[in-house]
Specification:
Elements lengths: L3 E5 L3 H10 L3 E5 L5 H4 L12 H10 L4 E5 L13 H11 L3 E4 L5 H11 L4 E6 L2 H5 L1 H5 L7 E3 L1 H7 L7 H4 L2 H12 L3 E6 L9 H11 L3 E4 L12 H45 L1
Parallel strand pairs: 1-2, 1-8, 2-3, 3-4, 4-5, 5-6, 6-7, 7-8
């Protein structure tokens, strides 16, 4: 099954280009509380999207789901509303999926699920060592629709030099396996255009297939609309980039099918031998 591709934007024209190119989810990113401090000055994206952005994107797209990352669980202050109020507003504005970031306890996920109350799909974002430590507790909570593993913050939490170390050392694989055993779909990390990135994205996409992942974020470098302003170039970047990803996925799927068929034949032959 093809990966559900997600792209972060609050620009309706870019959302429409992404959707028409085959992107499945438009990602509105409202997270900002504490983000700058914990990422220690790294060149990471901070989007400061708003509730109004959700409304605009919801009206702009036809079939793509609108995924909204809210802020970590928090109480109301003089500067911002409470998590419950923020989640209510996001859902009322059109969020199809709500993502909860920077989880440090299973209680936070429990509160999150209660606030959403079945009105949208839920996606806890596992991006702290604390969340990994209580991952079994999180998975046992009813009402989780998907899990996403955030490699940037998680690698910072583990003091790693490169986020994909967690893909190489089995950390991501362990989380994926636990999610799979619970029957909860999952995804991880971000992917650039094929051939791009310190670790070229084709290797990462193959890992998505090996691990049974169902979704992935298209990274800022896939199409950085802050640098590329020409709509024609943006459009061709999306069309060509998504097409190349889908072609690689077809190759991955054919190989998975080969091994699945072999597994079926082995089971059939073993049964015949045992019955004979």
């Amino acid at each position: 099954m093809a990966l559900k591709l997600m792209y972060i934007t609050n620009q309706p024209q870019i959302a429409q280009i992404a959707e028409s190119s085959g992107v499945d989810r438009i990602f509105v990113d409202m997270e900002y509380i504490g983000k700058a401090e914990r990422q220690g000055g790294l060149d990471s994206v901070q989007n400061y999207h708003t509730i109004e952005d959700i409304r605009v994107i919801k009206q702009a797209v036809q079939s793509a789901e609108v995924l909204v990352r809210v802020n970590p669980i928090h109480e109301a202050t003089a500067e911002y509303t409470s998590s419950k109020e923020e989640i209510d507003a996001a859902i009322n504005a059109g969020a199809d999926i709500v993502m909860l970031p920077y989880i440090t306890s299973s209680k936070q996920v429990e509160d999150f699920l209660r606030y959403v109350d079945g009105r949208a799909k839920t996606m806890p974002l596992i991006e702290t060592p604390q969340a990994v430590a209580v991952f079994d507790e999180i998975l046992s909570l009813p009402g989780i629709d998907e899990i996403y593993i955030g490699l940037n913050d998680l690698s910072l939490g583990y003091h790693r030099k490169f986020m994909f170390e967690l893909l190489a050392d089995g950390t991501v694989e362990g989380l994926c396996l636990k999610s799979k055993l619970k029957g909860i779909p999952y995804g991880f990390g971000g992917i650039a255009s094929l051939g791009k990135g310190m670790l070229p994205s084709e290797y990462i996409i193959r890992e998505h297939y090996r691990l049974g992942s169902s979704c992935a974020i298209l990274s800022r470098s896939f199409c950085n609309v802050e640098k590329v302003k020409h709509i024609g170039i943006i459009s061709s970047t999306f069309i060509d980039g998504v097409k190349a990803i889908r072609e690689l996925e077809a190759e991955c799927e054919s190989k998975i099918s080969y091994f699945r068929e072999n597994e079926r034949v082995v089971a059939q032959k073993v049964q015949m031998i045992c019955e004979g």
